[in-house]
Amino acid sequence: MRRNRTLVLAAGALGLIVLIVLVLPVFLPSVSATDPVHRLLPPSAAHLLGTDSYGRDVASRLVSGGRASLGLSALITVCAAATGLVIGLVSGFFRAADAVLMRVMDAWMSFPAIILAMALAISLGASLWTELIALTVIFTPFTARVIRSRVLAVASRAYIGAARVSGMGRWKTLLVHVFPNVLPLALVQVVVLAAAAMLVDGAMSFLGLGIAPPTPTWGNMIAEGRSYLVTAPWLVVVPGVTIMLCVFLLNLVGSALRQAVDPRARTLHELQRLRTRTT
The organism sits in which domain of life (predicted)? Predict the structure, then answer.
């Protein structure tokens, strides 16, 4: 993994963004401080990213909004990955449970993800916890199916049969022999899931179904700035580019991790590098 420069650079950039989001708000103006006299100012030395329609500093709101957006995306990722991991392990290893669990997962996946999230948010009321529940529900089936496919492949190997013949219980076999071989793929799925969660979280906040103003998030910053897209485009461009950058970096990390932990992907990558050298 250390030899993969893409992984190191992308992970380093993500770590820097997280560090900025955690530390920088202490040194920036308050996100709730309004100044109507200096509203809609362009970026300057006094306000690095300009001000919004209430005269609030956009840089302060961007950094503080990152705490909410990144924190909620991480929480959604952990909840959906943990739930999907358990369902995928049980479904892939216990065939009796597979018929029931996978049919439920298929039913969830038959609905468009954003429509299902919107329906849950509207029915439960817009809030942080509603968004957490809604996005956990829509992302769990995707994680469960990926983990299940890996469990099915591992469960068919000879050493799993040898463990069963030796008298090892099924649950112990699952935890001792299957789970460690599934964990690398689960880590890759976590990174991919985090990128998707950030995108959907931004869409939910933009539609007013996530964390409500005045608490800043990158999604509701875009929603608040859309009325001033012509006169003050930085209100939309700055949080939009930030979301795009984080999703891009997460996808780079996910792709690099897959090459590091998946032997087939690693072999294909080495063949591509060899072909590039020979040509």
Answer: Bacteria
Residues present in the chain in total: 279
DSSP 57: B
**CA pair distance 228, 53, nearest whole angstrom:** 8
- In one letter, which amino acid is 180? P
Could you give the C-alpha distances from 69 to 120, 219, 277, in angstroms and in order?
A: 19, 8, 42
Contact at 8 Å (CB) between 120 and 198?
A: no
Q: Is the pTM of this model over 0.90?
A: no
Q: Contact 6/256 with Cβ under 8 angstroms?
A: yes
- pLDDT per position as a tens digit, 203-216: 888 888 877 778 88
Instruction: Say how far apart CA 210 and CA 201 lie, in whole Å.
Output: 7
CB 27 within 8 A of CB 40: no
Domains and CATH numbers, the chain: 53-278 (1.10.3720.10)
